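S.,

Sequence below, as promised.
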Amino acid sequence: AEAEKAASLGLDLIITDHHEPHGDLPKAVAVLDHKIPGSLYPESVLAGVGMALKLSQGLAAHTGSGDELWADLLDIAALGTAADIVPMTGENRIICAVGFSQMKESKHPGLRALIDRQKLSGKILSTSDVVFMLAPCINAAGRLGDSSRGVKLLLTQDKGEATAWADELVDLNTERKALDKTVQDRVSTWVTENVDLATTAGIVAADKGWHLGVIGIAASKIAEAFTRPSVLLSIGDDGIAKGSARSIEGVHLLDALSTCEDLFISYGGHAAAAGLSIREENIAEFRQRFSEAVAKQLPIAEMIPRVNADVEANLSDLTPQFFRIVKQMEPFGPGNMRPVLLCRGLSHKNPPRMVGAKHVKMTLCQGPLVMEAIAFNFGPRISEIAGSRALSTAFTLDENEWNGAVNLQMKIKGVEI
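The prediction came back faster than expected:
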């Protein structure tokens, strides 16, 4: 409807997108989307910001402007690409590899200010730095009301303004985290009290008190916690519920939602994430049909937490030279994940200890060899882990810097006693 309105006003409209289209395409001068059936573009996983970058490159080629039209924007393109959790392969990986390096000396005062505020200055950033430290601050502005604040941060050329916007966005993200935890705790309680996981393949939870700006993040946490595709809906005073959905490995979320499209006012997304709106009176039927659609893709018996390791290794394999080889595969992300290693027959040199509120620090041995390990969020299992005489760990290899010394350490993903 918006495209038709623009056409009626005599506006030439170009649309860039990276979602899977359904139904008729909007009436526009051009619709740039590599997922449109019949597209000849060799990539099919660019983020939305990647599509905008390709438009900029096309304009440069067409007008003879040269690389200067877009080259200084690669750090912004890398920021958006990593934040959108698209596969880190092909062009996405190239955009991020160059863009992350460019962030170190970014010409955008706002991005530099945010990097400084998050204490990331002077290093080549990683995907996780962007996903967990930078992007949430920019997104927090939109989640809590006014997304233009994130735009102003990235557009400003004034260093003072940049610092002010960065400070405000970091504070907003702190507020967002608190709201997110509140919603997540309430949803977790509701699922525990109302959902039979033995017979439910997909979770649909709805309430009038959940903040619309944070339910997407909460949906990710719920999907991870219960190993079920999860849809969280915030019901408005007008009886219309809007929400976000997140999936798990083995379930194509958009396909599952498509079986219920007659119940929706609108919906869209892709395999891993989606958004939708629905009338409150249709939620109960949606809950049942969504669960049935998910179960056809992945049986409930297979919905158990698991960690898939890429290769088995011994502590003797985990050398600085091996770590340098692993780093050459960066930047990591979906489709090019950091290798997960499996090490068996480990024992404790020292008793495991709690670090912070819920993390476990270990010193593990295999014969005469010793390696430090950190297990984030494994606090509830510390007694089980400490009481083990032998254990296997799935982990990624990382560096830990402490008091000027840099040593390799395991970042634990899973523990088997």
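Residues 7 and 28 are 7 Å apart (CA to CA).

Coffee later?
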